[in-house]
């Protein structure tokens, strides 16, 4: 056991806000060891890691593989052995199998051994979380005696719910609450986290350390933003969002308990900057963690592909982004110029691949079967599918990941072509409504994100932002031929998707009831498309896929109230 004073008046606790990789147990162990060594140089007594750090979070059904769980436990034993050096102790998250039950657990390591194990009590089972499917719920925990300090270690949801986990810890003698978290990004969520923690601080009378994971994991982006509130409700530490960092905090024990000395209070991104940075981090980690060397996307001269190209350059660097213009007879000179200008100002590679020959080839092959029919959306979609095939061919040949670029408004109503412009491996704006896309473009032209690999200044030509949106699949086509104006459409969609409001309630906001009914119908019948779409970064409170899970076969429609 450590030679450290068993009744200390001072304590240094390091918060490791890091970016683990799902399933890379050896890599995550190495990252934990490096963080512990770094914290030790600053005299840390204890290093607090985040929820399920050793495995990555959330492992979903991967955690049901006995070999995976066994590998995680072996890594924990190796890390525990490291603490025999009398250096910093460790609090770290991992899956654990105990008495035939699988737990979302935290272990406390010190003196070369596993000092204690604690199991998550309140398992979230809503939105993006489905933990009751794979984990057993732990019993209400007691504090852990670490070098004479009684630590309460509730895990993430344990401080959000009403099971009284933090209160139980306080009543059983905890002096300080350490909370490892895997809380994904959602717009304005940091304020909500502060509110949740302050409620626990007030109810328990204890200071609380909130350590949150960082990094993209499929659709989710863990934004970090770890922080500390003292028992007097003062904010002692605010770590940055979207950035790896290890913060060493200094604690003193007084008559009123433990108090954290005032430390750094980071300036955090707000609103559009936060959304943009989340999209950027989500794309960067998806590409890098899955081993893609670069990305490729159709650069049409439209606003969606332009913002996706900008996000890609910021996330990966211009040398890892390739734009492809795929013109047909309806592609205007304006679009050709806008796409070329966008690629030039971003500094990425740009190629033009005309699609007239493949489209005409499809039409020729199908002409005997199409004889006697009128040209309609079928022929329009052939253009999109030819483009999708060409992009996928380039992906196969050069190992590039295809980015798909449909916004949430289009995904909601099915204004996209399955196996065409929906082709791709990842979509950074899948959860961003069209009106928000325009706002992000204007924001990016005036600002550059802190972790960007791109340059400052205008990166999206203004004409792309101001011109009338069109898919250019027929002569003089505009999006508003098929859809209401985007400000109206997006309001209806937010009411339907995030708000779960009825058609009558939405119509009462000033929308035409018949139009709302039509949009509701489009949202329902597009479910089969969304089920086959690429993953994309979660930004809102309810994204398609993890949060909103509707049946494909569904005849329900709202009845208008009279």
UniProtKB/TrEMBL annotation:
Keyword match rRNA processing: no
CN hydrolase domain residues = 11-253
Its EC number(s): 6.3.5.1
Which reaction is this enzyme known to catalyze? deamido-NAD(+) + L-glutamine + ATP + H2O = L-glutamate + AMP + diphosphate + NAD(+) + H(+)
Residues that coordinate or bind deamido-NAD(+):
381, 410, 529
Recite the UniProt keywords alphabetically. Answer: ATP-binding, Ligase, NAD, Nucleotide-binding
Q: Where is the active site?
A: 51, 120, 156
Q: Which SUPFAM superfamilies match?
A: Adenine nucleotide alpha hydrolases-like, Carbon-nitrogen hydrolase
The task this protein performs is described as: Catalyzes the ATP-dependent amidation of deamido-NAD to form NAD. Uses L-glutamine as a nitrogen source.
The entry assigns this protein to a family as follows:
Belongs to the NAD synthetase family. In the C-terminal section; belongs to the NAD synthetase family.
What name does this protein carry? Glutamine-dependent NAD(+) synthetase
Native species of this protein? Paenochrobactrum glaciei
Supply the gene name.
Answer: nadE
């Amino acid at each position: 056991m450590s030679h450290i004073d068993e009744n200390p008046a001072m304590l240094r606790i390091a918060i490791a806000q890091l970016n683990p990789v799902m399933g890379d147990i050896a890599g995550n162990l190495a990252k934990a060891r490096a963080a512990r060594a770094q914290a030790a140089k600053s005299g840390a007594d204890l290093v607090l890691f985040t929820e399920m750090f050793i495995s990555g979070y959330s492992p979903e059904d991967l955690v049901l593989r006995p070999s995976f769980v066994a590998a995680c436990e072996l890594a924990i034993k190796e890390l525990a052995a490291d603490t025999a050096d009398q250096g910093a102790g460790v609090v770290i998250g991992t899956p654990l199998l105990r008495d035939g039950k699988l737990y979302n657990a935290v272990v406390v390591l010190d003196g070369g051994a596993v000092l204690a194990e604690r199991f998550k009590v309140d398992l979230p089972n809503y939105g993006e979380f489905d933990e009751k499917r794979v984990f057993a719920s732990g019993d209400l925990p007691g504090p852990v005696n670490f070098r004479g300090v009684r630590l309460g270690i509730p895990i993430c949801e344990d401080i959000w719910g009403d099971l009284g986990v933090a209160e139980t810890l306080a009543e059983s003698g905890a002096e300080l609450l350490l909370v490892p978290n895997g809380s994904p990004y959602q717009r304005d969520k940091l304020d909500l986290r502060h509110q949740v923690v302050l409620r626990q601080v007030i109810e328990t009378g204890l200071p609380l350390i909130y350590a949150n994971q960082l990094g993209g994991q499929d659709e989710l982006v863990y934004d970090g933003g770890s922080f500390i509130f003292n028992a007097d409700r003062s904010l002692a530490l605010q770590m940055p969002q979207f950035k790896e960092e290890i913060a060493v905090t200094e604690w003193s024990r007084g008559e009123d308990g433990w108090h954290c000395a005032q430390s750094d209070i980071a300036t955090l991104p707000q609103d559009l900057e936060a959304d943009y940075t989340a999209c950027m981090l989500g794309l960067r980690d998806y590409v890098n963690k899955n081993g893609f060397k670069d990305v490729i996307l159709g650069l049409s001269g439209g606003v969606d592909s332009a913002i996706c190209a900008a996000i890609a350059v910021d996330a990966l660097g211009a040398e890892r982004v390739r734009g492809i213009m795929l013109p047909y007879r309806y592609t205007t000179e304006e679009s050709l110029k806008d796409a070329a200008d966008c690629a030039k100002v971003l500094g990425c590679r740009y190629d033009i691949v005309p699609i007239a020959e493949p489209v005409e080839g499809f039409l020729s092959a199908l002409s005997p079967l199409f004889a006697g029919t009128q040209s309609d959306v079928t022929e329009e979609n052939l253009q999109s599918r030819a483009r999708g095939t060409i992009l996928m061919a380039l992906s196969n040949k050069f190992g590039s990941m295809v980015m798909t670029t449909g916004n949430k408004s289009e995904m909601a109503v099915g204004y996209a072509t399955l196996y065409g412009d929906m082709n791709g491996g990842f979509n950074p704006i899948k959860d961003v409504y069209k009106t928000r896309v325009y706002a992000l473009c204007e924001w990016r032209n005036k600002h550059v994100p802190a972790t960007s690999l791109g340059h400052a200044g205008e990166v999206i030509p203004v004409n792309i932002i101001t011109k009338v949106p069109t898919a250019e699949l027929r002569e003089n086509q505009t999006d508003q031929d098929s859809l209401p104006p985007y400000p109206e459409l997006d309001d209806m969609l937010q009411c339907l998707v995030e708000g779960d409001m009825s058609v009558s309630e939405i119509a009462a906001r000033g929308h035409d009831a018949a139009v709302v009914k039509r949009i509701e119908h489009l949202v329902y019948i597009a479910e089969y498309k969304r089920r086959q779409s690429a993953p994309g970064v979660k930004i809102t409170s309810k994204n398609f896929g993890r949060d909103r899970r509707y049946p494909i076969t569904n005849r329900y429609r709202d009845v208008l109230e009279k």
